[in-house]
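User: Hey, my collaborator sent me this sequence without any context and asked if I could get a structure. I don't really work with proteins. Can you help?
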Amino acid sequence: MTNREKYRVFCKENRSIPIFSKDWFLDAVCGKDNWDVVLVEKQRKIIASMPFYKKKKALFTIITMPKHAQTMGVFLTYPKGQKYETKLSYEKKIMQSLIEQLPTVDYFNQTFHYSITNWLPFYWKGFTQTTNYTYVIEGLSNLDMVFKNFSNGKRKDIEKAKSVVEIKFDLPAKEFYAHHKQTLEKQNAKISYSFEHFYRIYTNLYNNNSGRTLFAIDKDNNIHAALLVIWDENSGYNLITTFDPTFRSSGASTLLIQESIRFISTKADIFDFEGSMIERVEKSYRQFGAKQKPYFDITKVDSKVLKYIL
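Assistant: No problem. I've predicted the 3D structure and written it out in structure-token form, which is a compact way to encode the shape of the chain:
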């Protein structure tokens, strides 16, 4: 079996792999033949994995993040009862093995899930790191407390929106994409992904019972906002949000977030806003009572020409 074939079996057997690293999600965001994976095995069982998306860009071969994947990077399984020192030693050994198997490329860039807190083995191999932030709401089993932590402004938006729109599920892929495209055009912006790319994601999510669209619609059938939420066994994620600036003051986007959190509480205990380093977006996420979580953006440039350009 190839590494990719082994990994498909591993994904079926190990539900704790984050959704962005699951084989069927990688098929959607990369294309079935455009990703691969390095593995560490012990007694013919996979104990660590690191999928990657490799492509050509101009004259360079790069490993980079595919669009709509928040994180990839390392996934490790740990022996039970490890002491802290033993855990760090284990991580060093396993990560170095993964690094040594990676193909030689001109440029490498991946973002790791925030559960990975040790990137030293990559530092020792010449990689650099930038800290990014996402915002998460934990403890979805207690929704009353979650909603109490919303700011006064968010709660007012929700009450306003309740009298204007209704939240519905399962907006078809074509309608969701068209809404995003049209509302971006109203803001003098262009959509950054094709319908074909979105349709692969949408179809794979629904086929694997790991994603749904929600939308806020008024009595005149105007869609104020829509959202694609996805989940794995640990977290739900706000993957794509679209809102119509014509109805900016309706509060529909805030109500939509609240209802997506309510829905995700039936699937997982964490809601991840999927991060943003944009100041105004960060402020909005913070007002939902979300907590800051740092995660690593790992880079290495091997090409001398590319180093000079950068």
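In plain terms: The chain has a mean pLDDT of 95. You can pass these tokens on to your collaborator as they are.
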